[in-house]
Specification:
It is built from five helices and three strands; from the N terminus they run ααβααββα. It has helices at residues 2-14, 17-28, 33-37, 44-56, 75-97, and strands at residues 31-32, 60-65, 68-73. The protein has a three-stranded antiparallel β-sheet. It is elongated and about 60 Å long.
């Protein structure tokens, strides 16, 4: 059940298009919150709330350096998602081969 709870948090986080955009940006590089906010059509405060949600749910990590909060992806969260998808794909392929 614990693994499903973590997975539920990941899916909940990625259900929002803004949070997906943040994750996509962080796939390319670590970035301060202000840089993440630049291309997004919302206030810095709103982006900060999305960043906090992603961090709370374990998809990203942040660290404050002086006055700048830098964000980066947490690869373990994406690994959990990848493992779940691979397991479901394998189950589906086995069920299809029996038909």
């Amino acid at each position: 059940m614990r693994n499903y709870l973590a997975l539920n948090h990941i899916f909940r986080a990625l259900a929002d298009p803004t949070r997906r955009a943040i994750v996509e940006l962080l796939c390319d590089r670590d970035a301060p919150v202000t840089s993440i906010a630049e291309p997004l059509p919302m206030s810095l405060a709103t982006v900060t709330r999305h960043v906090q949600a992603l961090e709370r749910w374990g998809l990203i990590r942040t660290h404050k350096i002086g006055r700048v909060r830098v964000c980066w992806l947490e690869p373990q969260a994406l690994d959990r998602l990848d493992q779940w998808v691979a397991c479901q794909r394998s189950r589906w392929q086995r069920s299809r081969s029996r038909v």
